[in-house]
Design a protein that fits this description.
Oligomer: single chain
Number of domains: 1
Number of helices: 4
Radius of gyration: 14 Å
CATH class: Alpha Beta
Helix content: 25-40%
CATH superfamily: BolA-like
């Protein structure tokens, strides 16, 4: 089955998620939309040292609690990765010193332990 490419609605929803989380006091270090062969649909990838401080299930619950009521539709599918995940570490190594990554498109490449078919970056610090 063909995977849908990232469209403006996905990009806008991801931007809103990042904004809502950060306005709630959850500092996000890495945020990007990622289409990958691992998943049928794209995922909004998030990494935060604050989310690393809790069990993985609790991290998802914490994000869901913050996002509750913020969308009139289902929020996007989210993948929370630890800051020490090879994918996050390599993203930060490659792009962490780039002046502005917001809006950067990536894809067709292996980063860390994941192949990115297509990606849209919001933040990598």
């Amino acid at each position: 089955m063909d995977k849908a490419t990232l469209v403006s609605l996905d990009i806008e929803a991801g931007s809103r998620v990042v904004s809502v989380l950060e306005n709630a006091g959850l500092p996000i270090k890495v945020a990007l939309w990622m289409a990958t062969p691992e998943y049928e649909e794209g995922r909004l990838v998030l990494a935060s040292s604050r989310l690393d401080q809790t069990a993985p299930l609790r991290a998802y619950e914490q994000v869901a609690e913050i996002l509750q009521g913020e969308f009139s539709y289902s929020p996007p599918a989210i993948l929370i990765l630890r800051m020490k995940d090879p994918f996050i570490q390599q993203l930060r190594q490659i792009f962490g010193k780039t002046r502005s990554v917001n809006g950067m498109r990536i894809g067709g490449q292996m980063i860390g332990n994941r192949f990115i078919s297509e990606g849209y970056v919001y933040k990598i610090t």
